[in-house]
Specification:
By secondary structure, the protein is mainly alpha-helical. Helix content is about 75%, strand content about 0%. The protein has four helices and no strands. α1 crosses α3. The longest helix has 30 residues.
Length: about 130
């Protein structure tokens, strides 16, 4: 019996639609937020332990690599929020047709980056 299934599947050549990327990024952002919980708890515990712990936590949070990780975490929170709202609307059968589904996927991806950019610009301007 001949199978019509592909024998060799090159995952790097597959072009996903925008909805596929939103789904994948939604999962990645959820994992990033879950992994950030124990790190945040450790930093918080150190910060409330006393003046020396607070100074050490502040110094750690001012490192450029940690700030970059915080920006990635902020993106993950925003993307997860917007994608979650999109999925709630899809569960309510709003935006199920192909055209509006694609538009809402692009809105989620662009909105997360734009809001993050606006927050960073506002933060830098202060």
């Amino acid at each position: 019996m001949q199978s019509t299934r592909p024998v060799f599947l090159d995952l790097w050549r597959i072009r996903l639609p925008a909805t596929g990327y939103v789904s994948i990024f939604h999962r990645i952002s959820g994992v990033l937020m879950v992994l950030a919980i124990p790190v945040g708890a450790i930093i918080f515990d150190q910060a409330v332990s006393g003046p020396e712990g607070f100074a050490a936590s502040a110094a750690f949070l001012h490192h450029w690599l940690v700030r970059l990780a915080l920006i990635a975490l902020a993106w993950s929170i925003l993307h997860h929020l917007f994608a979650g709202i999109r999925y709630l609307l899809l569960d309510l059968r709003i935006g199920l047709d192909r055209a509006s589904s694609r538009v809402s996927a692009w809105v989620v991806m662009v909105a997360a980056v734009v809001v993050l950019g606006l927050v960073l610009i506002w933060r830098i301007a202060q």
